[in-house]
Write a structure and sequence with these properties.
The complex is a heterodimer of chains A (406) and B (243). Helices cover 56% and strands 18% of the residues of chain A. Chain A is of the alpha+beta class and 406 residues long. By secondary structure, chain B is of the alpha/beta class. Chain B has a single domain, classed as P-loop containing nucleotide triphosphate hydrolases (Rossmann fold). Helices cover 31% and strands 28% of the residues of chain B. Chain B has helices spanning 48-55, 78-87, 104-113, 119-132, 148-160, 178-194, 205-208, and strands spanning 4-17, 20-33, 37-41, 63-68, 71-72, 89-92, 166-170, 197-202, 213-218, 221-227. The longest helix of chain B is centred in the last third of the chain and has 17 residues, at 178-194. Chain B is globular, with a radius of gyration of 18 Å. The mean pLDDT of chain B is 89. Classes of the chains: A alpha+beta (406), B alpha/beta (243). The A-B interface holds A 1-2, 5, 12, 16, 312-313, 316-326, 398-400, 403 and B 53, 56, 58-59, 78-79, 82-83, 85-87, 91, 93, 97, 99, 101, 110-111, 113-115, 119, 158, 162.
Chain lengths: 406, 243
């Protein structure tokens, strides 16, 4: 029997029992819809994390102070004071370091900031001019901190867009104004562009010269991190090793495992973040897949019912010369139509759901064709898998028993 | 000499339900030649319907041989049997067995779908046959909008659409009014005149007299098999000349 006739006949039959067809389809709609929506949400958050991390710079290596081992006791990571300005200087000048282009020593801490009547508590980061290049900072107005300002311990500040808005309101250019950081007056010399991404952390910052931060504001001699720009993405590992051994030597540590610092590349951070969001996506997809299987079982149930109901019709068709494959394809086509149409509606529902989510969460709205095609294929496959058993059952009926069936 | 169309020898059919064995047909031997017009009669439970199902390759005998056009039916696969039902045999059932919610035309076209008759041939062939059975103006009616007699004529058109050599009719007039029954019998007579083998199952002597030969069954055994001496011939109307 020709495919076009099978499809028309199948659609007609499904149309007779609108409610039943609709309910059976609903299972697939919900299954496919949730697969599309949940997988897209997972992918979107993954993409958001990636773009955010990429925007910080892909040649970036970050050295954080680690815990110092004293005997069997290990202090908390990151809380230590083992990185110094001299370490940064050594990385810049030592002859063993051939793969690092720029070194940005940083000290950051939270502080209360006041501008007129407004005040906010934000991250104050002491930086050198290298920070702009290493951390890919762009200014929307003003200039970045200069070498002279670092040497002179100038009280100048560059605001992140969030801080600027908090202190001066939207659309106001605060360059030239004065703010108070920890009771000291700072002149604003620039505002950075927004880094974007769902996290606004990068925008909620104030940059001041490193020396000013260390000596005038917080009274420390160590660094909270050193950011390095490798010469290219290809030498990241090499740079990591060169810097690592230099610092081990400088800190008098012979074993790598007891290092009092940690060097993370952008790809390390990316991997960690991806694996978290990846697990999340897998979990969501798993839940969605379960609802899809439940939908498939619903289809099978309906098809089995339909076979029983139409036993006489099957008997008649066989009496008139229908072969097994004719009966199988007739019922298979019906279940495929069910899952296919359900799949299409499910994709639309899923995309709509994801759209609502992306509007609410201000996240990116991208539906990958792969996930749509996959959902499409899976729904058709479910039609075949769950339609197969009922179709076989129908085809194997003996014509005379089927005809006699009341 | 005429070709033998159907030949059964020592055919038995037994139904097994739980531990009760019911012998429906017992050692039946029978020959039907091409172009014969046979009525199979008997009270209900005599096994006449079972015999027809076996003749129509809808059911297989428990033992014995059935040769259809010289071919041993018991050796054929399910799909080969389906092909025989499709091409060699035209069924007319007491309950019409038309597809519900399907137009008369589509019902008549159904067997052609299973024989891969080209689409462009299907419709003209079905329309012509519906015209022959006097339903040219009912082609798009669904069975529930047709009378019993009209439905049975649709079923006859369907039985004829593959030009089978054998027409098997199981109580074809059982559910329809007597004037309609006469029409149906006229069609069978005309088909037989043209050379088709007709086998009719009936319990009504009025219907059996249309045939050339009558076989009586009782309790699964043939009790008589004779030529009809007084055959009732219907005056064939011109409209059936097209068959």
């Amino acid at each position: 029997m020709r495919l076009s006739k099978l499809i028309i006949g199948g659609a007609k039959n499904l149309f007779v029992n609108k409610l039943r067809t609709g309910l059976a389809m609903l299972g697939i709609v919900i299954g496919i819809g949730s697969v599309i929506a949940l997988v897209s949400m997972g992918e979107a958050s993954k993409a958001a994390v990636q773009t955010q991390i990429q925007s910080i710079g892909s040649n970036l290596l970050t050295i954080s102070p680690g815990s110092q081992s004293s005997g069997m006791v290990r202090g908390a990571m990151g809380g230590a004071t083992t990185l110094t300005n001299d370490d940064a200087e050594a990385i810049m000048t030592d002859s063993s370091i051939t793969t690092v282009a720029n070194v940005s020593p940083e000290y950051s801490s939270r502080a209360q900031v006041i501008a007129g009547k407004n005040n906010t508590n934000t991250q104050v980061v002491g930086v050198t001019p290298a920070y702009e290049e290493v951390r890919k900072i762009e200014l929307s107005s003003g200039t970045f901190i200069t070498e002279q300002e670092v040497n002179a311990m100038s009280k100048v500040a560059i605001l992140g867009p969030t801080v600027a808005e908090d202190l001066f309101g939207e659309g106001v250019n605060p360059v030239g104004q004065t703010i108070r950081i920890a009771s000291k007056n700072f002149q604003i010399i620039g505002v950075t562009k927004s880094k974007g991404g769902s996290s606004t952390n990068n925008d909620d910052r104030i940059f001041v010269p490193l020396t000013t931060a260390q000596k005038q504001l917080f009274g420390v001699k160590y660094l909270s991190s050193i950011a390095l720009e490798a010469k290219s993405e290809n030498v990241m590992t090499k740079a990591q090793n060169q810097v690592g051994y230099l610092l081990l030597e400088r800190h008098g540590i012979s074993e790598v495992s007891s290092a009092d610092f940690r060097i993370m590349s952008q790809s390390d951070i990316l991997e960690a973040a991806s694996s978290v969001t990846g697990t999340f996506t897998t979990l969501l997809a798993g839940i969605a897949a379960i609802s899809l299987v439940v939908g498939g079982i619903g289809i099978m149930n309906i098809m089995l019912m339909s076979v029983t109901e139409r036993t006489r019709e099957i008997g008649l068709r066989k009496a008139l010369g229908a072969k097994k494959k004719d009966i199988i394809s007739q019922f298979l086509i019906e279940s495929i139509i069910l899952t296919f149409v359900g799949g299409v509606i499910g994709i639309m529902v899923g995309v709509a759901g994801f759209y609502v989510y992306s509007v609410i969460n201000e996240s990116t709205f991208v539906v990958t064709t792969v996930s749509a095609l996959l959902a499409f294929g899976v729904s058709a496959l479910i039609g075949v898998v769950f339609g197969w058993y009922p179709a076989r059952k129908a085809a194997n009926l003996q014509p005379i028993e089927a005809l006699r069936y009341e | 000499m005429k070709k033998t169309s159907i030949e059964i020898s020592h055919l038995c059919k037994t139904y097994q339900t739980a531990d009760i064995e019911t012998k429906v047909l017992i050692d039946i031997s029978l020959k039907i030649e091409e172009g014969e017009y046979v009525a199979i009669m008997g009270p209900s439970g005599s096994g006449k319907s079972t015999l027809m199902h076996i003749l129509g390759a809808l059911d297989l005998p428990t033992s014995g041989k059935y040769l259809l056009d010289g071919q041993d039916v018991s050796l054929l696969s399910d799909d080969q049997l389906a092909e025989i039902r499709n091409k060699k045999i035209g069924f007319v059932f007491q309950a019409y067995n038309l597809l519900a919610r399907t137009s008369a035309l589509d019902n008549v076209m159904l067997p052609m779908n299973y024989a891969d008759v080209p689409d462009e041939e299907q419709k003209p062939r079905a329309e012509k046959l519906l015209e022959v059975v006097d339903l040219a103006n009912r082609t798009h009616h669904t069975p529930n909008k047709l009378s019993g007699g009209q439905q049975q004529r649709v079923a006859i058109a369907r039985a004829l659409v593959m030009s089978p050599t054998i027409i098997l009719a199981d109580e074809p007039t059982g559910n329809i009014a007597s004037d309609q029954a006469e029409e149906v019998m006229a069609i069978f007579q005309k088909l037989n005149d043209r050379g088709s083998t007709i086998i009719i199952i009936t319990h009504e002597p009025d219907i059996a007299v249309h045939a050339k030969r009558t076989i009586h069954l009782k309790d699964g055994v043939i009790i008589s098999d004779e030529k009809n001496k007084k055959r009732h011939l219907i005056k064939i109307k011109d409209k059936y000349e097209a068959i």
